[in-house]
């Protein structure tokens, strides 16, 4: 099959591993910078050029679209979809996952538990908003933050109020959540491919921090997700329409809670920690799905 990976940098670990896994299995794999893709949209059909040349015959597109180019990157992916290519993570699913508020609303509507979350825009209602959330500590998150950036822990309600006012002064979009103290700065990253959790790792925040993201200095170790945790992870990915996802869970006294569903999960950490060929599992999944679509 002819596979395309949408990525701005072919040297990134995840992109490189997907290329290697695809070629090892005999497929034609090409890395495409989405910002060099140009689209023709007309009633008589859709077409694409890449670096000035027509781009046709792509069977599968695996998106590795960074947050900074979400709008254009998903437009390019949507164009491929219109041209008949299959993607495990469609453009609309990526947009749902990238918007934390929207993603939380969708997950909650499906009965998937998460830390209590509140959102409001008017500064006159800050006190009422905080009362809906409950007593501090609170966690404030920028709506489109990534890799642990844009996440703030406040110990007192007065501090929460001050941060809220500051963020509103910057016209930032954010949400607030309850703090799950019993997790002790740890979470569980479940890598979902299709209907299965193919790997999971426990991430621990460094001393003095509560963010367990590896980019924020967290450490990771292999972990066995429970049956309930695996079910929640798969349900979360499906709720957002993602065939490949990194689902971050937190272990609480009331069971697993979903923190975030990542539509472009990094492979380096989970492959190194778990010692598994996750890139190969992704390639096998997308090729099998595309083959079933052709046969239908």
Q: Give the helix tally.
A: 9
Count of discrete structural domains: 3
- Helical percent range? 25-40%
Q: What is the level 1 CATH name of the largest domain?
A: Alpha Beta
Order of helices and strands: EHEEEEEHHHEHEEHEEEEHEEHH
Instruction: Specify Rg, calculated over alpha carbons.
Output: 20 Å
CATH fold assignment of the largest domain: D-amino Acid Aminotransferase, Chain A, domain 1
Model regions low in confidence, pLDDT < 50 over at least 5 residues: none
Q: Between the first and last Cα atoms, what is the distance in angstroms?
A: 17 Å
Name given to the CATH homologous superfamily of the largest domain = ATP-grasp fold, B domain
* Cross-sheet strand order for the largest sheet: 13-12-11-14-15
**Biggest sheet, in brief?**
5 strands, antiparallel
Structural class: alpha+beta
Share in β-strands: 25-35%
Number of strands: 15
Instruction: Please identify, by name, the CATH architecture of the largest domain.
Output: 2-Layer Sandwich
Mind explaining what this structure looks like?
This protein has 296 residues and is of the alpha+beta class. It folds into three domains: 2-88, Rossmann fold (3-Layer(aba) Sandwich), CATH 3.40.50; 96-111 and 183-263, ATP-grasp fold, B domain (D-amino Acid Aminotransferase, Chain A, domain 1, 2-Layer Sandwich); 117-179, ATP-grasp fold, A domain (Dna Ligase, domain 1), CATH 3.30.1490.20. It has helices spanning 13-24, 70-82, 91-98, 100-109, 126-133, 157-169, 227-240, 268-274, 278-295; strands at residues 2-6, 28-32, 37-42, 45-50, 53-54, 60-63, 117-118, 138-142, 151-154, 174-178, 186-193, 196-204, 219-222, 244-252, 255-262. The strands form four sheets. The chain has a five-stranded antiparallel sheet with strand order 13-12-11-14-15, sandwiched between helices. A four-stranded antiparallel sheet has the order 7-10-8-9, sandwiched between helices. Helix 1 crosses helix 9 (278-295). It is globular. The chain starts with a strand and ends with a helix. The model has no long low-confidence stretch (mean pLDDT 92).
């Amino acid at each position: 099959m002819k596979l395309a990976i949408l990525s701005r940098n072919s040297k990134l670990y995840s992109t490189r591993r997907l290329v290697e896994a695809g070629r090892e299995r005999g497929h034609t794999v090409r890395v495409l910078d989405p910002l060099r893709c140009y689209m023709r949209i007309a009633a008589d059909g859709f077409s694409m050029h890449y670096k000035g040349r027509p781009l046709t015959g792509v069977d599968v597109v695996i998106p590795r679209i960074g947050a900074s180019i979400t709008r254009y990157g998903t437009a390019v992916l949507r164009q491929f979809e219109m041209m008949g290519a299959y993607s495990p993570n469609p453009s609309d699913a990526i947009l749902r996952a990238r918007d934390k508020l929207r993603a939380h609303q969708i997950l909650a509507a499906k009965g998937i538990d998460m830390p209590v979350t509140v959102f409001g825009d008017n500064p006159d209602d800050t006190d009422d908003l905080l009362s809906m959330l409950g007593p501090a500590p609170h966690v404030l998150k920028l709506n489109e933050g990534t890799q642990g950036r844009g996440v703030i822990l406040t110990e007192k309600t007065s501090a929460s109020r001050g941060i809220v006012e500051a963020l509103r002064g910057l016209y930032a979009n954010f949400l607030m959540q309850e703090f799950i103290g019993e997790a002790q700065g740890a979470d569980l990253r479940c890598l979902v491919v299709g209907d299965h959790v193919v790997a999971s790792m426990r991430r621990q925040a460094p001393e003095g921090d509560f963010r367990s993201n590896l980019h924020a200095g967290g450490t990771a170790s292999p972990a066995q997700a429970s049956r309930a945790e695996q079910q929640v992870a798969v349900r979360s990915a499906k709720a957002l329409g993602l065939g490949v996802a990194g689902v971050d869970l937190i272990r609480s006294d009331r069971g697993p809670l979903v923190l975030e569903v990542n539509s472009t999960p990094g492979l380096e950490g989970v492959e190194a920690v778990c010692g598994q060929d996750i890139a190969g599992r992704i390639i096998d999944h997308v090729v099998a799905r595309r083959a079933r679509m052709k046969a239908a």
